[in-house]
């Protein structure tokens, strides 16, 4: 969805920081958002990471980011729990991202 | 319940309402589990997420407790073999799908609280009553996914074997992320731009070792 959104809006993104958790993804506030996800899921240094998002993007952004993290904690459990298959159409559409982020290292049906 | 008045950051009312809705559904009898069993599943999931021991859950079978703990702590390690093992222990496909719904929704709500630096909400008191045991019509079928679904396997049909859990997913998915309709707009902006939203989603999925 990230690549599709970027393509459709003629923006640009560096995907590697999504996989490594470090670096600048070239999206405004992206470095701070990635650090916020890292902190929330590790349970360490959440408060300063949240404050960095507030400083970079504002309080509404920090609240929305917290909600999105929660939502994808939910969606990941659903996808993994039901064994959601990766169909050929998805694989074709996501070919570049699958390669760039080495997504095939993750289990899936 | 879900009173965010002491939060230093303003929590949108629709988000608080969505969390109350999750808690209301959690306490009520489900399709395959009684309310007290749904609370027990949530309790095991919450303990397992933090790496703790869930303690004795007299209302929950051993396979159900194991499934709840696995889905909460390390969902990417769920395999068809594990699901078969739980099924052999008495956790059938319908009960398992409802369990996925409960674990995933509680995890979403709790994660929001952790991210915001707010103590997690106490689990609700179970309501009395028996599960409906309603099977959808048309009946779900097993195709390429590991659980039966109504229609082709994709996220909007993922929990369709238990429609109440699909409804609960959609009710939370909109306020917390985007509605399925909003997902078709690549430029939609809320507190975050669409690209920022997807960046957060992608990094979360990467840490969870989830393909999607």
Describe the structure.
The complex is a heterodimer of chains A (109) and B (212). Chain A is an all-alpha fold. Chain A has one domain. Chain A is built from 7 helices and no strands. Chain A has helices spanning 2-8, 16-20, 30-42, 46-57, 59-82, 88-93, 95-100. In chain A, helix 4 crosses helix 5. Chain B is built from 7 helices and no strands. Chain B has helices at residues 13-27, 35-49, 62-73, 80-88, 93-116, 163-176, 194-207. In chain B, helix 5 packs parallel to helix 6 (163-176). Chain B is mostly helical and 212 residues long. Chain B has one domain. Chain B starts with 12 loop residues before the first helix and ends in a 5-residue tail after the last helix. At the A-B interface, helix 1, helix 3, helix 4 and helix 5 of A face helix 5, helix 6 and helix 7 of B.
Outline:
The complex is a heterodimer of chains A (109) and B (212). Chain A has 109 residues and is mainly α.
Outline the fold blueprint.
The complex is a heterodimer of chains A (109) and B (212).
Chain A: H1 2-8, H2 16-20, H3 30-42, H4 46-57, H5 59-82, H6 88-93, H7 95-100
Helix pairs in contact in A: 3-4, 3-5, 4-5
Chain B: H1 13-27, H2 35-49, H3 62-73, H4 80-88, H5 93-116, H6 163-176, H7 194-207
Quickly give the structural class of chain A: mainly alpha
Name the structural class of chain B: mainly alpha
How large a portion of the residues of chain B is in β-strands, by DSSP E? Answer: under 5%
Strand content of chain A: under 5%
Major sheet characteristics of chain B:
none
Average the pLDDT over all residues of chain A and give the rounded result: 88
The tally of beta strands of chain B, per DSSP, is 0
Q: H/E series of chain B, N to C? A: HHHHHHH
Radius of gyration of chain B, in Å, reads 17 Å
Most extensive chain interface and residues per partner = A-B, 69 and 73 residues
What separation lies between the terminal Cα atoms of chain A? 20 Å
Enumerate how many helices of chain B there are, as a single number.
7
In percent, how helical is the residue content of chain B?
Answer: 40-55%
Tally of domains of chain A: 1
Distinct helical segment count of chain A: 7
């Amino acid at each position: 969805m990230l690549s599709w959104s970027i393509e459709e809006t003629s923006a640009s993104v560096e995907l590697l920081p999504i996989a490594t958790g470090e670096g600048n993804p070239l999206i405004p506030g992206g470095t701070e958002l990635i650090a916020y996800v890292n902190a929330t899921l590790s349970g360490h240094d959440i408060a300063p990471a949240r404050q960095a998002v507030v400083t970079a993007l504002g309080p509404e952004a920090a609240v929305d980011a917290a909600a999105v993290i929660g939502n994808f904690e939910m969606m990941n459990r659903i996808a993994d729990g039901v064994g959601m298959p990766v169909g050929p159409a998805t694989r074709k559409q996501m070919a570049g991202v699958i390669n760039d982020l080495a997504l095939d290292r993750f289990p899936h049906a | 319940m879900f009173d965010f008045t002491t939060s230093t950051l303003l929590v949108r009312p629709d988000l608080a309402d969505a969390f109350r809705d999750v808690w209301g559904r959690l306490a009520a009898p489900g399709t395959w589990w009684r309310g007290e069993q749904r609370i027990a599943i949530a309790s095991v999931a919450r303990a397992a997420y933090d790496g703790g021991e869930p303690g004795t859950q007299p209302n929950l079978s051993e396979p159900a407790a194991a499934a709840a703990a696995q889905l909460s702590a390390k969902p990417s390690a769920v395999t068809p073999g594990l699901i078969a093992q739980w099924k052999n222990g008495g956790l059938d496909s319908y009960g398992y799908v409802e369990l996925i719904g409960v674990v995933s929704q509680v995890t979403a709500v709790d994660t929001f609280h952790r991210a915001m630096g707010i103590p997690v909400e106490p689990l609700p008191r179970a309501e009395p009553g028996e599960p409906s045991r309603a099977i959808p019509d048309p009946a779900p079928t097993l195709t390429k996914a590991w659980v039966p679904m109504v229609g082709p396997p994709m996220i909007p049909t993922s929990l369709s074997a238990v429609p109440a859990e699909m409804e609960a997913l959609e009710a939370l998915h909109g306020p917390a992320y985007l509605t399925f309709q909003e997902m078709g707009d690549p430029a939609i902006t809320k507190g975050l731009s669409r690209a920022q939203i997807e960046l957060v989603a992608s990094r979360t999925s990467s840490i969870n070792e989830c393909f999607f």
